[in-house]
Amino acid sequence: MNPAISVCIPVFRSEKTLESCLKSVCAQKFRDFEVVIVDDASDGKDKNGKTAKKIVKDFSKQMKKNGVFVEFVRNSSNLGLLEARRTLVEGCVRRIYFAGRFRR
Q1: E strands along 1-104, which residues?
Q2: What residues form DSSP beta bridges with 72?
Q3: Does pTM top 0.70 for this prediction?
Q4: pLDDT tens for residues 18-73?
C-alpha cells in the first residue's frame, strides 16, 4: 500500500469528538489515503465509555472494507503535542499535506 495522503489525528482527552472526526474522514469520496491516529496516553472516554483504542478499532473495521489503512499508536506516557505530531509523521507511509495559511 502506498497512499497519496496521510490523515494524521492526535488524540488526548478528545474521545468525545473522535468518532465524529473519524466519520467525517470516512465520508470522503477520495480513497487514496491512510489514517494514522496517535493516542498520547489519554485517559478519556466517549459518552458510551469507549477508549480511543476501541473507537479506532471499530472505525478500522469499516474502513478496511473500503481499502483504507488505519494505524493506531498509543504512547505509554503523555509526551505532549509536539511529540505526538512527531509520532504521527513517523507513522505515515507516504507523505503529508498541510493545508492552511502561510504568512510572509
Answers
A1: 5-11, 33-39, 69-74
A2: 37
A3: yes
A4: 989 998 888 888 888 888 888 888 888 888 889 889 999 988 888 888 778 888 88
